[in-house]
Amino acid sequence: MKYDEIHIENLDFFANHGVFPEETKLGQKFIVSLVLYMDTRRAGKSDDLQMSVDYGAVSHFVTEFMKNNTYHLIEAAAENLVQEILLKFPLLEGIDLELKKPWAPIGLPVEYASVKISRFWHRAYLGLGSNLGDKKAYLDYAIQRLNEEKDCRVEKVSEYLVTEPYGGIEQDDFLNACLLLKTQMSPEELLEKLHEIEKEAHRERIVRWGPRTLDLDILLYDNLVMENEELIIPHIEMHMREFVLKPLSEIAPNIRHPIYKKTVSQLLKELKS
């Protein structure tokens, strides 16, 4: 999706960031430029500042954050600054940021050193399942833990669905659900977080498709198609699983599978036919 842009160019301030003690103690000049991505149509039609992001407020927030925090690396300063801006201003979908260090201690004639980063909110659809112990409590726990993550927001959750086990192994019925997660995490970071939550729920990976306290899968992540040794997106078997498509169709019936180009509702209808 292509967003509208608000630009803030060359905002300068004095702050204390750097590897060397004199940098963090004495401070130096920094310059920030930002591109703020959002939909400005409602603000443009209404002429109402509440429908937009106040670039003055963003500028003051950037200045105060950079003055009140100290980082060794401008990479760390940029990363944390962007995360906090996205959390502070909920209408924003993403940010391009360049952080310049004009007085970088390089020992050679140079105008500045800088780092550029681009960070966005992403929308991931997750599958949840449990068939050991208090199944509902495990699903509730996973949703709560995701909501507690600073850079995650659970936007929608389907009803919990009782389903027969998948994979031909004799075991108890599952409780399944799907949710929509708005996150700043990369797919790899999200997978690591899901494994961490599964571990907290005493998940043991002994038998494939075997019983488990908690199973968390990334089904879709934006419109991404990717595959590596650890992760395949979209989930390789989601289009063949009614216990995925049924709760997913409840919260996202018109989302299209990025490979098959069919909506979740269409995939569910074809699976049942």
Automatic annotation (TrEMBL):
Any one Pfam family match given in the protein's UniProt record, by short name: FolB
Q: Which residues form the 7,8-dihydro-6-hydroxymethylpterin-pyrophosphokinase domain?
A: 208-219
- Molecular-function GO terms, alphabetical: 2-amino-4-hydroxy-6-hydroxymethyldihydropteridine diphosphokinase activity; dihydroneopterin aldolase activity
Q: Cross-referenced SMART domains, in alphabetical order?
A: FolB (SM00905)
Q: Which domain of life is it from?
A: Bacteria
CDD domains attached here?
Answer: DHNA_DHNTPE, HPPK
Q: Which UniProt keywords apply?
A: ATP-binding, Folate biosynthesis, Kinase, Lyase, Nucleotide-binding, Transferase
EC number(s) stated in the UniProt entry for this protein:
4.1.2.25, 2.7.6.3
Q: Which InterPro entries match?
A: Dihydroneopterin_aldolase, FolB_dom, GTP-CH-I_C/QueF, Hppk, Hppk_sf
- Which pathway, per its entry? Cofactor biosynthesis; tetrahydrofolate biosynthesis; 2-amino-4-hydroxy-6-hydroxymethyl-7,8-dihydropteridine diphosphate from 7,8-dihydroneopterin triphosphate: step 4/4; Cofactor biosynthesis; tetrahydrofolate biosynthesis; 2-amino-4-hydroxy-6-hydroxymethyl-7,8-dihydropteridine diphosphate from 7,8-dihydroneopterin triphosphate: step 3/4
Reactions performed catalytically: 6-hydroxymethyl-7,8-dihydropterin + ATP = (7,8-dihydropterin-6-yl)methyl diphosphate + AMP + H(+); 7,8-dihydroneopterin = 6-hydroxymethyl-7,8-dihydropterin + glycolaldehyde
Instruction: Please name the PROSITE patterns in this protein's record.
Output: HPPK
Family, per entry = In the N-terminal section; belongs to the DHNA family.
What is the role of this chain? Catalyzes the conversion of 7,8-dihydroneopterin to 6-hydroxymethyl-7,8-dihydropterin.
- The identity of this protein, by name, is Bifunctional folate synthesis protein
The record lists the organism as Blautia caecimuris
